[in-house]
Amino acid sequence: MPFAIVQVQPGGPEVLHWAEVEVGDPGPGEVRLRHTAIGVNYLDIYFRSGRYAGAKLPFTVGAEGVGVVEAVGDGVALVSVGDRVAYASRTPGSYAEARVVPAAWLTPVPDDIPDDIAAVLMLKGMTAEYLLHRTHQVGAGDRVLVHAAAGGMGVLLCQWARALGAQVAGTVSTEAKAAIAREHGCELPIIGGDWVAAARSWSGGRGVDVVYDGIGRDTFVQSLEALAVLGHLVSYGQASGDVAPFDLKLLAAASLTVSRPNLFHYTEDADRRAAMSARVWEAVRAGRITPRVARRLPLKDAAEAHRALESRQTTGATVLVP
Asked: pTM here?
């Protein structure tokens, strides 16, 4: 039988266990995948810890994966046995050697895109696509601030925003991370300190046009303070915890806008998902984004990957290899 990472209760990384699992055959509209690469995301930590409700315990975490179709159920016409495919799903379960999933989730992976790159693009790449092109359309001359600019998500946002003609600043915690952010399009890496004042000084005192904030509680109010009049705070994650209730007058002071988007609302429509993935693949081919896979770990070491991510030790993306 195949193996997977299984947890029987919410908690820290120690609840992730390597165990044999039953996979079974695909039913109507389903396929069985053999995973070849699996992306690691903060979303996985939310499910593991119990912040987000997962499937009935015991269950397997993991939101994105790449694999090869091993079997198809009745009525499946869009993919065939042997196809390379990728997916990101709101239903956890990708930390597994094999898995049965609905065929409707799947996106074909072009031959020129390696498995580990595809494994970080289905969630992070697609998220960068909608954040920069749909939630807020970044254009030439925009001033953009990216939090955690050296992380797996941050480097994609910095690169792509710069390719769109924006000027990009980003917050980082160390000199080493500043160098990584700068290498990936961040004109002004801000290391700790009063980053609001630094961002305002960099923008000539007016503030930035948009802040991309995956940190949440610890940065939310200051992110509003960093914005220019008519600025837009895009809060797409809460690595530091949930954002506390706030007074709407904070927005009225400069006619600010706040968005809290969700990738899976953007990808529910199959045609829109196909257009998003096509733009992501093309951005890779054109060099507008170069996903940085900093760590490749065996799937059985998923707990180690989570410890590193939660401790802010990581730069770039982490991929688990079955």
From this structure: 0.90
